[in-house]
Task: structure prediction
Amino acid sequence: MIIPEFEIVKTPLNECRIRGPVQVFQPDITLHDHEIHVWHARLESHSAELKFIKSILSSDELLRAERFYFEQDRVNYCVSRGLLRTIIAHYIGMAPNLLSFKYGAYGKPYLDNNVAGAELHFNVSHSGGNALFAFSAKHPIGVDLERISIEIDYEAMAKQILTTREIDFLGSITENKRLETFYRIWTCKEAYTKLVGVGLNMPLGNIDVTSFRGTGFDLLDRYNDRNDLSDCTIRSLNTWPEFAAAITVESEDIGVS
Result:
């Protein structure tokens, strides 16, 4: 039986595109233990293939999609899940519609233990019609993407989700860089909550990422009593203009590609 699925076209920017259908029987993307892979996609560019995408989703995923109020949000959810299944299929060599997921207490998805390649770790974030997909062979991972809005009152938001040290750091930089920096700090925090699988249930004010170094922020303080940060890498990512993104992985020596 030929199972239709999407071919992943890997561009220099690791962009996911639908150009199928094709068939996959063996893994054809290698992910080494010391690497994390980040893929990006413009969700709205795949809306024409929605019927095909829905054919590889589970009944549970289709039900989750229907819970979104706006049609475009339902479409974006379906496309992101279809792409997630397709990328995983290329890593582990299993047809995307045969993949089975389990969910943590706060909704973070994992591959079912009965699925080949279940040790693969992944996380997804989408905002403003774009999505990021992050993968690690052995380490828990979290990714966050936010569209930067000039209309938000970031100073008011900062008082709600930043620590005192982060607010001081924000005030110490050039004013025209503060909005972008606020989003970079925010996405680093969100990526960490997604790494540990608690999402909005973790107060962002309990996480501090103010030690700026090179391309990202060091994770200084963790939630609860987890104070040993030597095994955690956090990095701010460059994606699209007007977007901020970050990735966090429980390993101190990881290369991003």
